[in-house]
Write a structure and sequence with these properties.
Blueprint lengths: L1 H13 L11 E6 L4 H15 L4 E6 L6 H12 L6 E4 L1 H9 L7 H7 L1 H4 L2 H7 E2 L2 E2 L1 E3 L1 E4 L2 E5 H6 L8 H13 L3 E3 L5 H26 L3 H4 L2 H15 L10 H9 L3 E5 L4 H7 L8 E5 L7 E4 L2 E4 L8 H11 L1 H11 L2 E2 L11 H16 L2 E3 L9 H15 L5 H15 L1
Parallel strand pairs: 1-2, 1-3, 9-10, 12-15
Antiparallel strand pairs: 3-13, 4-5, 6-13, 7-12, 7-14, 8-10, 8-11
Length: about 425
Protein backbone atom coordinates (compact mmCIF):
# COMPACT_ATOMS: atom_id res chain seq x y z
CA UNK A 1 0.00 0.00 0.00
CA UNK A 2 2.84 2.39 0.82
CA UNK A 3 4.35 1.67 -2.59
CA UNK A 4 1.04 2.44 -4.31
CA UNK A 5 0.64 5.74 -2.46
CA UNK A 6 4.18 6.70 -3.41
CA UNK A 7 3.56 5.73 -7.05
CA UNK A 8 0.36 7.78 -7.22
CA UNK A 9 2.09 10.76 -5.64
CA UNK A 10 4.88 10.46 -8.18
CA UNK A 11 2.43 10.34 -11.08
CA UNK A 12 0.59 13.39 -9.78
CA UNK A 13 3.84 15.29 -9.41
CA UNK A 14 4.95 14.30 -12.91
CA UNK A 15 1.71 15.52 -14.44
CA UNK A 16 1.25 18.64 -12.32
CA UNK A 17 2.50 20.92 -15.07
CA UNK A 18 -0.24 19.85 -17.46
CA UNK A 19 -2.96 18.76 -15.05
CA UNK A 20 -5.39 20.75 -13.00
CA UNK A 21 -8.92 22.00 -12.97
CA UNK A 22 -10.01 23.38 -16.31
CA UNK A 23 -10.78 27.07 -16.50
CA UNK A 24 -14.42 28.07 -16.77
CA UNK A 25 -15.52 27.56 -20.38
CA UNK A 26 -12.76 25.01 -21.04
CA UNK A 27 -12.72 21.27 -21.36
CA UNK A 28 -9.76 19.41 -19.92
CA UNK A 29 -9.22 16.27 -21.99
CA UNK A 30 -6.99 13.37 -20.97
CA UNK A 31 -5.93 11.24 -23.94
CA UNK A 32 -3.03 9.26 -25.42
CA UNK A 33 -3.16 10.56 -28.99
CA UNK A 34 0.39 11.86 -29.19
CA UNK A 35 1.76 10.60 -32.53
CA UNK A 36 1.79 12.90 -35.56
CA UNK A 37 -1.25 11.40 -37.26
CA UNK A 38 -3.21 11.20 -34.01
CA UNK A 39 -2.42 14.79 -33.06
CA UNK A 40 -3.56 15.97 -36.48
CA UNK A 41 -6.86 14.14 -36.03
CA UNK A 42 -7.38 15.49 -32.53
CA UNK A 43 -6.86 19.02 -33.82
CA UNK A 44 -10.10 18.64 -35.79
CA UNK A 45 -11.99 18.32 -32.50
CA UNK A 46 -10.10 21.17 -30.85
CA UNK A 47 -10.94 23.51 -33.72
CA UNK A 48 -14.59 22.48 -33.66
CA UNK A 49 -14.90 23.42 -29.99
CA UNK A 50 -12.87 26.61 -30.37
CA UNK A 51 -15.33 27.73 -33.04
CA UNK A 52 -18.02 27.48 -30.32
CA UNK A 53 -15.96 29.56 -27.88
CA UNK A 54 -14.91 26.56 -25.78
CA UNK A 55 -11.24 26.32 -24.82
CA UNK A 56 -9.28 23.07 -24.88
CA UNK A 57 -6.97 22.19 -22.00
CA UNK A 58 -4.83 19.36 -23.32
CA UNK A 59 -3.59 16.53 -21.12
CA UNK A 60 -1.72 14.06 -23.33
CA UNK A 61 -0.20 10.95 -21.76
CA UNK A 62 2.05 9.10 -24.20
CA UNK A 63 1.56 5.37 -24.65
CA UNK A 64 -0.24 3.86 -27.61
CA UNK A 65 -2.37 1.36 -25.69
CA UNK A 66 -3.58 3.84 -23.07
CA UNK A 67 -2.29 1.95 -20.01
CA UNK A 68 -0.27 4.95 -18.77
CA UNK A 69 -3.23 7.25 -19.32
CA UNK A 70 -5.45 5.02 -17.18
CA UNK A 71 -2.84 5.06 -14.40
CA UNK A 72 -2.73 8.85 -14.50
CA UNK A 73 -6.54 8.98 -14.53
CA UNK A 74 -6.78 6.83 -11.41
CA UNK A 75 -4.33 9.15 -9.67
CA UNK A 76 -6.32 12.23 -10.68
CA UNK A 77 -9.61 10.76 -9.49
CA UNK A 78 -8.02 9.58 -6.24
CA UNK A 79 -6.85 13.16 -5.68
CA UNK A 80 -10.41 14.47 -6.26
CA UNK A 81 -9.47 16.23 -9.49
CA UNK A 82 -11.06 14.32 -12.36
CA UNK A 83 -10.60 15.68 -15.90
CA UNK A 84 -13.64 16.91 -17.82
CA UNK A 85 -13.40 14.12 -20.38
CA UNK A 86 -11.16 11.09 -20.88
CA UNK A 87 -10.39 8.93 -23.90
CA UNK A 88 -11.30 5.35 -22.98
CA UNK A 89 -11.77 1.90 -24.40
CA UNK A 90 -14.24 -0.90 -23.78
CA UNK A 91 -14.44 -2.42 -20.34
CA UNK A 92 -12.52 0.51 -18.81
CA UNK A 93 -15.56 2.69 -19.53
CA UNK A 94 -17.93 0.23 -17.87
CA UNK A 95 -15.66 -0.12 -14.85
CA UNK A 96 -15.75 3.63 -14.22
CA UNK A 97 -19.50 3.69 -14.81
CA UNK A 98 -19.98 1.02 -12.16
CA UNK A 99 -18.09 3.27 -9.73
CA UNK A 100 -20.63 6.03 -10.40
CA UNK A 101 -17.93 8.35 -11.69
CA UNK A 102 -19.39 9.17 -15.11
CA UNK A 103 -21.93 11.79 -16.08
CA UNK A 104 -25.36 10.96 -17.53
CA UNK A 105 -25.48 11.94 -21.21
CA UNK A 106 -29.04 10.74 -21.86
CA UNK A 107 -30.44 14.21 -22.49
CA UNK A 108 -28.02 15.09 -25.27
CA UNK A 109 -28.25 11.53 -26.65
CA UNK A 110 -32.05 11.76 -26.86
CA UNK A 111 -31.95 15.21 -28.46
CA UNK A 112 -29.59 14.01 -31.17
CA UNK A 113 -30.90 10.47 -31.69
CA UNK A 114 -27.77 8.53 -30.82
CA UNK A 115 -29.73 5.31 -30.24
CA UNK A 116 -30.65 5.05 -33.92
CA UNK A 117 -27.22 5.72 -35.46
CA UNK A 118 -24.62 4.20 -33.12
CA UNK A 119 -24.12 0.43 -33.71
CA UNK A 120 -25.20 -1.86 -30.88
CA UNK A 121 -21.68 -3.24 -30.56
CA UNK A 122 -20.50 0.25 -29.57
CA UNK A 123 -23.51 0.99 -27.39
CA UNK A 124 -22.53 -2.04 -25.30
CA UNK A 125 -19.65 0.08 -24.01
CA UNK A 126 -21.22 3.55 -24.26
CA UNK A 127 -24.28 2.82 -22.12
CA UNK A 128 -24.60 1.54 -18.57
CA UNK A 129 -27.67 0.95 -16.46
CA UNK A 130 -29.86 2.65 -19.07
CA UNK A 131 -27.65 5.74 -19.36
CA UNK A 132 -25.33 6.98 -22.05
CA UNK A 133 -22.02 7.57 -20.27
CA UNK A 134 -19.62 8.17 -23.17
CA UNK A 135 -19.53 9.54 -26.71
CA UNK A 136 -18.05 7.18 -29.35
CA UNK A 137 -15.53 8.88 -31.62
CA UNK A 138 -14.75 6.13 -34.08
CA UNK A 139 -14.44 2.45 -34.82
CA UNK A 140 -10.94 1.10 -35.29
CA UNK A 141 -10.44 -2.34 -36.73
CA UNK A 142 -7.33 -4.08 -35.54
CA UNK A 143 -6.72 -6.96 -37.98
CA UNK A 144 -5.02 -4.92 -40.71
CA UNK A 145 -1.67 -5.40 -42.41
CA UNK A 146 0.17 -2.37 -43.83
CA UNK A 147 2.76 -2.78 -46.56
CA UNK A 148 5.24 -0.65 -48.48
CA UNK A 149 4.15 -1.09 -52.09
CA UNK A 150 7.55 -0.31 -53.60
CA UNK A 151 9.23 -2.92 -51.39
CA UNK A 152 6.69 -5.57 -52.35
CA UNK A 153 6.86 -4.67 -56.04
CA UNK A 154 10.66 -4.80 -56.05
CA UNK A 155 10.51 -8.33 -54.71
CA UNK A 156 7.66 -9.58 -56.90
CA UNK A 157 5.23 -9.96 -53.98
CA UNK A 158 1.47 -9.57 -54.34
CA UNK A 159 -0.96 -9.14 -51.45
CA UNK A 160 -1.02 -12.48 -49.57
CA UNK A 161 -4.48 -13.96 -49.12
CA UNK A 162 -3.62 -16.97 -46.94
CA UNK A 163 -1.23 -17.64 -44.09
CA UNK A 164 0.93 -19.80 -46.35
CA UNK A 165 1.16 -16.99 -48.90
CA UNK A 166 2.13 -14.58 -46.12
CA UNK A 167 4.85 -16.97 -44.94
CA UNK A 168 6.21 -17.17 -48.49
CA UNK A 169 6.20 -13.36 -48.83
CA UNK A 170 8.01 -12.90 -45.52
CA UNK A 171 10.63 -15.49 -46.43
CA UNK A 172 11.19 -13.80 -49.78
CA UNK A 173 11.83 -10.45 -48.09
CA UNK A 174 14.18 -12.02 -45.58
CA UNK A 175 16.14 -13.68 -48.38
CA UNK A 176 16.45 -10.28 -50.08
CA UNK A 177 17.90 -8.72 -46.93
CA UNK A 178 14.79 -6.66 -46.12
CA UNK A 179 13.34 -6.65 -42.59
CA UNK A 180 10.08 -8.49 -43.29
CA UNK A 181 7.98 -7.26 -40.35
CA UNK A 182 8.10 -3.99 -38.42
CA UNK A 183 7.01 -4.54 -34.85
CA UNK A 184 7.12 -2.65 -31.59
CA UNK A 185 8.04 -4.63 -28.50
CA UNK A 186 5.22 -3.57 -26.21
CA UNK A 187 2.65 -5.90 -24.68
CA UNK A 188 -0.38 -4.28 -26.33
CA UNK A 189 1.27 -4.41 -29.76
CA UNK A 190 2.12 -8.08 -29.42
CA UNK A 191 -1.43 -8.78 -28.23
CA UNK A 192 -2.83 -6.90 -31.23
CA UNK A 193 -1.00 -9.29 -33.54
CA UNK A 194 -2.06 -12.25 -31.38
CA UNK A 195 -5.73 -11.30 -31.87
CA UNK A 196 -5.26 -11.70 -35.61
CA UNK A 197 -3.18 -14.86 -35.27
CA UNK A 198 -5.94 -16.50 -33.21
CA UNK A 199 -8.66 -15.44 -35.65
CA UNK A 200 -6.54 -16.61 -38.59
CA UNK A 201 -5.73 -19.97 -37.02
CA UNK A 202 -9.19 -20.81 -35.70
CA UNK A 203 -11.83 -18.62 -37.31
CA UNK A 204 -14.59 -16.55 -35.72
CA UNK A 205 -16.28 -19.22 -33.59
CA UNK A 206 -12.94 -20.21 -32.11
CA UNK A 207 -12.06 -16.57 -31.42
CA UNK A 208 -15.38 -16.08 -29.63
CA UNK A 209 -14.98 -19.27 -27.60
CA UNK A 210 -11.46 -18.37 -26.52
CA UNK A 211 -11.58 -14.62 -25.93
CA UNK A 212 -15.20 -13.77 -25.23
CA UNK A 213 -16.57 -16.95 -23.67
CA UNK A 214 -13.15 -17.75 -22.14
CA UNK A 215 -13.73 -21.43 -22.79
CA UNK A 216 -10.93 -23.50 -21.28
CA UNK A 217 -11.15 -26.09 -24.07
CA UNK A 218 -10.53 -23.45 -26.71
CA UNK A 219 -7.80 -21.73 -24.72
CA UNK A 220 -5.96 -25.03 -24.24
CA UNK A 221 -6.46 -26.44 -27.73
CA UNK A 222 -4.12 -27.42 -30.55
CA UNK A 223 -5.62 -24.52 -32.49
CA UNK A 224 -4.35 -22.11 -29.84
CA UNK A 225 -0.93 -23.73 -30.14
CA UNK A 226 -1.07 -23.02 -33.89
CA UNK A 227 -1.78 -19.36 -33.10
CA UNK A 228 1.30 -19.25 -30.87
CA UNK A 229 3.31 -20.99 -33.60
CA UNK A 230 2.29 -18.19 -35.98
CA UNK A 231 3.44 -15.64 -33.42
CA UNK A 232 6.78 -17.45 -33.20
CA UNK A 233 7.16 -17.16 -36.99
CA UNK A 234 6.41 -13.44 -36.81
CA UNK A 235 8.92 -13.00 -33.98
CA UNK A 236 11.59 -14.75 -36.06
CA UNK A 237 11.10 -12.14 -38.80
CA UNK A 238 11.22 -8.98 -36.69
CA UNK A 239 14.45 -7.00 -36.39
CA UNK A 240 16.41 -7.36 -33.15
CA UNK A 241 15.87 -3.72 -32.12
CA UNK A 242 12.12 -4.07 -31.66
CA UNK A 243 12.07 -4.09 -27.86
CA UNK A 244 10.24 -1.07 -26.43
CA UNK A 245 9.66 0.48 -29.87
CA UNK A 246 6.51 2.61 -30.13
CA UNK A 247 3.96 1.52 -32.73
CA UNK A 248 4.33 4.68 -34.83
CA UNK A 249 8.09 4.14 -35.11
CA UNK A 250 7.37 0.68 -36.47
CA UNK A 251 4.95 2.27 -38.94
CA UNK A 252 7.71 4.68 -39.96
CA UNK A 253 9.90 1.70 -40.87
CA UNK A 254 7.28 0.63 -43.42
CA UNK A 255 6.76 4.21 -44.63
CA UNK A 256 10.50 4.61 -45.19
CA UNK A 257 10.94 1.25 -46.93
CA UNK A 258 12.99 -0.21 -44.06
CA UNK A 259 10.46 -3.04 -43.61
CA UNK A 260 7.82 -4.72 -45.73
CA UNK A 261 4.85 -5.29 -43.42
CA UNK A 262 3.34 -4.11 -40.17
CA UNK A 263 0.38 -5.77 -38.43
CA UNK A 264 -1.43 -2.95 -36.70
CA UNK A 265 -4.82 -1.32 -36.32
CA UNK A 266 -6.04 1.27 -38.77
CA UNK A 267 -4.66 4.15 -36.70
CA UNK A 268 -1.44 3.31 -38.56
CA UNK A 269 -2.98 4.80 -41.69
CA UNK A 270 -2.91 8.23 -40.09
CA UNK A 271 0.88 8.02 -39.98
CA UNK A 272 1.08 7.20 -43.69
CA UNK A 273 -1.26 10.08 -44.52
CA UNK A 274 0.62 12.47 -42.24
CA UNK A 275 3.78 11.54 -44.19
CA UNK A 276 2.07 12.43 -47.47
CA UNK A 277 1.68 8.83 -48.64
CA UNK A 278 -1.20 7.67 -50.84
CA UNK A 279 -3.00 4.33 -50.42
CA UNK A 280 -2.62 2.05 -53.43
CA UNK A 281 0.31 4.10 -54.69
CA UNK A 282 2.75 4.22 -51.77
CA UNK A 283 1.25 1.74 -49.34
CA UNK A 284 -1.20 -1.13 -49.25
CA UNK A 285 -3.82 -2.05 -46.66
CA UNK A 286 -5.32 -5.51 -46.35
CA UNK A 287 -6.72 -7.85 -43.72
CA UNK A 288 -4.44 -10.21 -41.85
CA UNK A 289 -4.40 -13.32 -44.06
CA UNK A 290 -7.18 -15.68 -43.09
CA UNK A 291 -9.34 -12.97 -41.48
CA UNK A 292 -10.74 -11.32 -44.62
CA UNK A 293 -14.36 -11.91 -43.61
CA UNK A 294 -13.94 -10.82 -39.98
CA UNK A 295 -13.36 -7.52 -38.23
CA UNK A 296 -11.93 -7.21 -34.74
CA UNK A 297 -12.56 -3.74 -33.39
CA UNK A 298 -12.04 -1.23 -30.68
CA UNK A 299 -13.79 2.11 -30.38
CA UNK A 300 -12.28 5.23 -28.89
CA UNK A 301 -14.83 7.00 -26.75
CA UNK A 302 -14.77 10.06 -24.56
CA UNK A 303 -16.28 9.45 -21.15
CA UNK A 304 -17.50 12.54 -19.33
CA UNK A 305 -16.63 12.57 -15.64
CA UNK A 306 -19.28 13.71 -13.19
CA UNK A 307 -18.50 17.29 -12.26
CA UNK A 308 -21.03 17.54 -9.44
CA UNK A 309 -24.22 15.86 -10.57
CA UNK A 310 -24.81 17.85 -13.75
CA UNK A 311 -23.43 17.62 -17.25
CA UNK A 312 -21.71 20.92 -17.84
CA UNK A 313 -22.40 23.08 -20.87
CA UNK A 314 -18.87 22.37 -22.08
CA UNK A 315 -19.28 18.60 -21.67
CA UNK A 316 -22.56 18.67 -23.58
CA UNK A 317 -20.91 20.69 -26.36
CA UNK A 318 -18.00 18.24 -26.52
CA UNK A 319 -20.32 15.22 -26.69
CA UNK A 320 -22.46 16.87 -29.35
CA UNK A 321 -19.42 17.81 -31.42
CA UNK A 322 -18.02 14.28 -31.24
CA UNK A 323 -21.22 12.67 -32.57
CA UNK A 324 -21.97 15.24 -35.24
CA UNK A 325 -21.85 13.71 -38.76
CA UNK A 326 -19.53 16.43 -40.04
CA UNK A 327 -17.00 15.81 -37.28
CA UNK A 328 -17.29 12.04 -37.60
CA UNK A 329 -16.30 12.34 -41.25
CA UNK A 330 -13.59 14.98 -40.85
CA UNK A 331 -11.95 13.31 -37.85
CA UNK A 332 -11.96 9.74 -39.13
CA UNK A 333 -10.65 10.73 -42.56
CA UNK A 334 -7.54 12.00 -40.76
CA UNK A 335 -7.36 9.38 -38.00
CA UNK A 336 -7.56 6.33 -40.25
CA UNK A 337 -10.59 4.88 -38.47
CA UNK A 338 -14.23 4.81 -39.59
CA UNK A 339 -17.21 6.69 -38.14
CA UNK A 340 -19.05 5.57 -35.01
CA UNK A 341 -22.29 6.50 -36.79
CA UNK A 342 -23.87 4.33 -39.48
CA UNK A 343 -25.27 7.26 -41.47
CA UNK A 344 -22.01 9.01 -42.46
CA UNK A 345 -21.12 9.08 -46.15
CA UNK A 346 -17.84 7.50 -47.30
CA UNK A 347 -17.39 10.17 -49.98
CA UNK A 348 -14.50 11.95 -48.23
CA UNK A 349 -12.63 8.74 -47.38
CA UNK A 350 -9.69 7.28 -49.28
CA UNK A 351 -9.53 3.73 -50.62
CA UNK A 352 -8.51 2.18 -47.30
CA UNK A 353 -11.21 4.14 -45.48
CA UNK A 354 -13.90 3.08 -47.93
CA UNK A 355 -12.74 -0.53 -47.57
CA UNK A 356 -12.83 -0.23 -43.80
CA UNK A 357 -16.39 1.10 -43.81
CA UNK A 358 -17.47 -1.63 -46.23
CA UNK A 359 -15.79 -4.35 -44.16
CA UNK A 360 -17.33 -3.06 -40.93
CA UNK A 361 -20.85 -3.00 -42.38
CA UNK A 362 -20.45 -6.50 -43.84
CA UNK A 363 -19.02 -7.94 -40.62
CA UNK A 364 -21.75 -6.37 -38.50
CA UNK A 365 -24.50 -7.78 -40.73
CA UNK A 366 -22.97 -11.27 -40.96
CA UNK A 367 -22.18 -11.66 -37.27
CA UNK A 368 -18.44 -11.43 -37.87
CA UNK A 369 -17.79 -8.24 -35.86
CA UNK A 370 -15.87 -9.04 -32.68
CA UNK A 371 -14.45 -6.89 -29.92
CA UNK A 372 -10.65 -6.97 -29.78
CA UNK A 373 -9.20 -8.80 -26.79
CA UNK A 374 -6.00 -6.79 -27.07
CA UNK A 375 -7.89 -3.51 -26.84
CA UNK A 376 -10.27 -4.28 -24.02
CA UNK A 377 -13.41 -5.07 -26.02
CA UNK A 378 -13.61 -8.85 -25.58
CA UNK A 379 -12.95 -9.47 -21.89
CA UNK A 380 -12.42 -7.41 -18.71
CA UNK A 381 -9.07 -5.80 -17.97
CA UNK A 382 -7.98 -8.53 -15.56
CA UNK A 383 -8.26 -11.16 -18.31
CA UNK A 384 -6.75 -8.91 -20.95
CA UNK A 385 -3.71 -8.24 -18.77
CA UNK A 386 -3.31 -11.96 -18.04
CA UNK A 387 -3.29 -12.69 -21.78
CA UNK A 388 -0.79 -9.86 -22.31
CA UNK A 389 1.63 -11.45 -19.87
CA UNK A 390 1.57 -14.85 -21.57
CA UNK A 391 1.76 -13.48 -25.11
CA UNK A 392 4.68 -11.20 -24.26
CA UNK A 393 6.56 -13.96 -22.46
CA UNK A 394 6.13 -16.25 -25.48
CA UNK A 395 7.10 -13.52 -27.94
CA UNK A 396 10.29 -12.91 -25.98
CA UNK A 397 11.22 -16.57 -25.92
CA UNK A 398 10.36 -17.43 -22.32
CA UNK A 399 7.89 -20.14 -23.40
CA UNK A 400 7.60 -22.40 -26.39
CA UNK A 401 4.13 -22.62 -27.94
CA UNK A 402 3.01 -25.70 -26.01
CA UNK A 403 4.02 -24.14 -22.70
CA UNK A 404 2.35 -20.85 -23.68
CA UNK A 405 -0.95 -22.68 -24.16
CA UNK A 406 -0.71 -24.19 -20.69
CA UNK A 407 0.19 -20.83 -19.17
CA UNK A 408 -2.68 -19.14 -21.01
CA UNK A 409 -5.24 -21.55 -19.57
CA UNK A 410 -3.91 -21.02 -16.06
CA UNK A 411 -3.61 -17.24 -16.37
CA UNK A 412 -7.15 -16.76 -17.68
CA UNK A 413 -8.57 -19.14 -15.05
CA UNK A 414 -6.99 -17.11 -12.27
CA UNK A 415 -8.00 -13.76 -13.81
CA UNK A 416 -11.69 -14.61 -14.38
Amino acid sequence: MAYMKTRIAGILAATSLVAGAANAGDVEVLHWWTSGGEAAALNVLKQDLESQGIGWQDMPVAGGGGEQAMTVLRARVTAGNAPTAVQMLGFDILDWAKEGALADLNEIAAQEGWDAVVPEALQAFARHDGKWISAPVNVHSTNWVWANKAVLDANGISVPQTWDEFVAAVEKLAAAGVTPIAQGGQAWQEATVFDAAVMSAGGPEFYKSAFIDLDEGALGSDTMKEAFDRMAFIRANVDENFSGRDWNLATAMVINGEAGFQMMGDWAKGEFLNAGKVPGTDFLCFRFPGTQEQVTFNADQFAMFDQGGMVSKEQAALASAILSPSFQSAFNVVKGSVPARTDVSDEAFDACGKQGMKDLAAAASSGNLFGSMAHGHAAPASVKNAVYDVVTAHFNGEYDSATAVEELVDAVSIAK
